[in-house]
Design a protein that fits this description.
430 residues; 2 domains; transmembrane helix; alpha/beta; two-stranded antiparallel ribbon
Length: 430
Amino acid sequence: MTRINNTAILTCILIFIALIFLLRLRNRYVSEDAGDSEGYNGIPINDDLAPPRPPILYTVEKFGEEGSQRSYAIQTEMHADQYCIGYKFLEATETFREADNLEPVTLATHATSDMIDAIENMSSLWDGPISIGIFVDYHSSNVLEYLAELYRCDIRFRRKMTVHFAFRRSPFQTTCPLFELPQSNRTCPEFFASHDILRSAIVGPFQLYPSNLMRNIARKGALSDIQFIMDGDMIPSEGFAIKIKPIANEVIDGKSKKVLAIRRFETKTGNEIPRDHRKLLKSKKAHETFEFHHRFFSQGHHIENLDDWFRTSIHTEIISTSEVAYPGYLWEVQTILHRNDPYNADYFPSRIKVMHSLIYALCRAGYTFHVPTHVFDVHEGIKHTNTIYSKATIAHQEAYAMKIAGDRYIQEMNELYPDTLQKCGEFSMI
């Protein structure tokens, strides 16, 4: 009997050690695990050791007084009997609707709490409205308190950022709760003085990440109708939001079945990230910047006629578009589209064909893809292979979720759009 008890105790200890190891392994690789070719998105990816980032420049002193201190109470809502969603936890104060009467382009993105560095930098990279869906769990929910303080103390963040959140409900939870966040008694100088300590206490959720759901939350909660779906670890070209607005209003209206497909690149870690097309071409010629995932999954991101795109962008200041053909179900380009256009299949398994589900649905629905000149985005770091954590997650999802989701999706596409199968080809989860 003693031997059995000792064996049981030893087994429990080994399981505990294994869980701790997996958690640390996950935290080690979590910053390398997003934006990849199979839609493994949500967390920045970097195959090389990244140099220290420049300090984030807050705008509380430069632009005016801090926001008012307040408490928050948001009734979360159930989705698919699995998730609780809190829309507009923080809402941007600026509409970006100017005298030109053009609809602003919202950067619709998603993240986990351990992407706090990228989240804080977004407002300095995008000169327009931003809508972000953040996935949390019990251990990582303190990121919401941190963002509420940032919203109050950084006027640039407050002007641009609309923040939503979601979490997976517990097995025996029948309703979604009222989320309450008490008023902070910190002053903004106190918040910035304790900034590093507060950030170090933020951890990522140790759960399967529903990237498609978070993309959809960002789109549904956006404050404008035209939306650019971009992963949170990408760096948009300079002036993107302003440059794209006229052509986006011309092409996208929620009726014409046209979307803009945005070129995506990756650059070697430690190099200057090119943010205009001339620097991009120079970096490409120096073999420092490449089309996104050119080594890992080029067929998912390649957009034809790149040389013509550079030539047009350099020889004229006027942004134009050219239509490109849909190359097949492996394509997962980033798009600018309308609120009324199709959404990602939010029931897709984590890291398996997640972004493909939207692009294929657009093709089946009769949409055409148009590539604008001048604007693009860049990822720091070049992906060569999946991390151990990615491979483990994919193996789990392939075993338990892939077939069910794939069968459901293919049936939906064939029922909704029976006349476009030949045009777009068969879809496959493999």
